[in-house]
Amino acid sequence: MRICAQAVADHLKQTGLASRGLIVGYDTRFASEDFAQAAAEVASGNGIKVYLCPGATPTPVVSYGVQAKKAGGAIIITASHNPPQWNGFKYKSEIGASAPTEVIAALEKHIAQILATGEMNQIPLALALKQGLAEYTDLAPVYLKQINRLIDLGELRKAKLKIVVDTMYGAAAGYFKMLLAGGSSQLIEINSERNPIFPGMKQPEPIAANLAKLKAKVKKEKASVGIATDGDADRLGIIDEKGNFLTQLQVFALLALYMLEVRGERGAIVKTITATSMLYRLGEIFNVPVYETSVGFKYISPKMLEEDALIGGEESGGYGFRGHMPERDGILAGLYFLDLMVKTGKTPSQLLEHLFSKVGPHHYQRVDIEFPEEERQKITSRLKDSSPQSLDGVKVVKKDTFDGFRFTLADTTWLLIRFSGTEPLFRIYAESDSPARVERLLELGKELAGV
User: Which residues constitute the domain of residue 389?
Assistant: First the structure.
């Protein structure tokens, strides 16, 4: 971890960004604050001013903090949505976005040099604080000020909504209360204490399988909506008023519709290969371009900047917005969803019906399959060799390997199989016009992969 921090320090010095300082943030995982302290000690030891978060802080708050403080970048200790035994090291660029591939390559080069030479600088945090090389910095106030600029929080507070928020034992605990308290809207927060085991869920990822408690709470309380954020709060999950999970693809399309129809804004939409085809239909209806990238915000962010995109997002529930930053923000996305409900006067299930009335019904599901690493090549070879003429009785009109193995059918249904970039598993994704067809396509995907 210290080697990674030294690589960041070397990168900042090499690129002339060191004088702008470095933000260091962390999540609620086991020992995250200790790893963050170690990173701060290394950066300070290299003469770089460190702005260290005094407590667990959502990743989007740190990302926006980079912009607000005009810092050279940020280190965030978080494993985001991954299982509890993991922790991770995220690096954000000087614009607060996920580091692009060329920056990652530069960091990896520095890491290799440090491993070879063993050269690393560090000073104790107490000394860094005393010498002014480090200071504790609460980024919440500048973030809250930005949110107030983007959305009318007063209107949300007096909307008489009953909202259940599941922060999944993560870094967003308390943020929705801070933003929405003091009006007629009622907010109930669950899983808001720190617990690095993430009990009751496989991992703090806001997908249907991990939100049983939120679904039950929404139904019990007769709530208007359930909102979930992942471990570091850059992803969003939505439960409708009936306790049903809205898929991330449906939420992405609804947020795009909110921007285009409710707010009346125009601009490009940027989606990853795993995101919904509904966006193409919305692009046609509202006459805006839609661009596709590989999976990951490190690919979405540059495209959003290049096209001055209105919204960018991915299948994992991460969405970024123009006027904020080209990066995922689960908190702002959740507030925008609430605003969509208030502005239209519709419940989440009614919003979905409204969306389908424009683009047709779209259902989606993903399955994650763990595999022994030694099987990777065999699975890859099987997928390379497979060229089905049809799937589920519908002609396959295109197979591509843009990012994984994708099969597009004549009715715009699609099936995708790709390996995870962070975990020892591969994922099968399918989107079609009914849940039954999606299930059949997922089974066919397993057959294609040979599992």
Answer: 363-449
